[in-house]
Amino acid sequence: MPSSRRLFLKKTGTLAAGALLAGVSAKALAIEHTQYFAAGDFAASYARLFAGQTIIDSDLLEMSLPDIAEDGAVVPITISSDLDDVERLYLFADKNPTPLVAEFELTPLVSTYLTARIKLAESCNVILIARRGDQLLRRSRWVKVVHGGCGVG
Amino acid sequence: MSIKIRSRRLDGYIEVKVLISHPMENGRNRDANGELIPAHFIEQLVVKLNGQNVLSSHMAGSVSKNPFFTFRLKSGEAGDKIAVTWMDNRQISDSAEHLLDE
Fold first, then answer.
1. Domain B3-99 classification at class level
2. ipTM score of the complex?
3. What's the predicted TM-score (pTM) here?
């Protein structure tokens, strides 16, 4: 059955090409991810993302965290804003071995509102940066951590 | 199934909660024998509504074990489908779907 063999070859060829493409994009993504979420000091991590860009401190961003976190392994955080056009949020803990905690990409289908649970290695500043178009806004909060300890973050 | 999704309709928006079972090991913790536990954390999370991206996130070992997120959809009809997918640093992934209520 040459026709079905041809069909088979055609299909497997397409599959192989698809897998290759998926492999390439996953690899490119992995490189970017590894770079941004590298362990290292906060200044380097921050500079990798925002070097040379103006950042404005803004209380239009709201960030709710406990003033004192008993357990650094699980710290609840709520991020919210009435600004409707935030495209990206970057969350940092400046004393964590991996200072960039998370990056969120929002679409117009969701409000600027998020809750999460994060690790804080020790008492530190939690810093939120919001990107709207070419504007960067920042909100920071000091959190005292009672039990952080080795390995957290 | 590593993902639980819940939603409820509130005044003017739909609140969606996502709970994922995952160790989120950052590679710096030690087990009972003092051996380093290898890094194992979610790198990427994607949320779709009826196949369209609504929210995505990149993260690493600074997110707590068993990640829990809440977000708010501005609108959605009963039967609309929320799909959540994660992928971790070992290229393991999982996904789950949830239909919005009335």
1. mainly beta
2. 0.96
3. 0.86
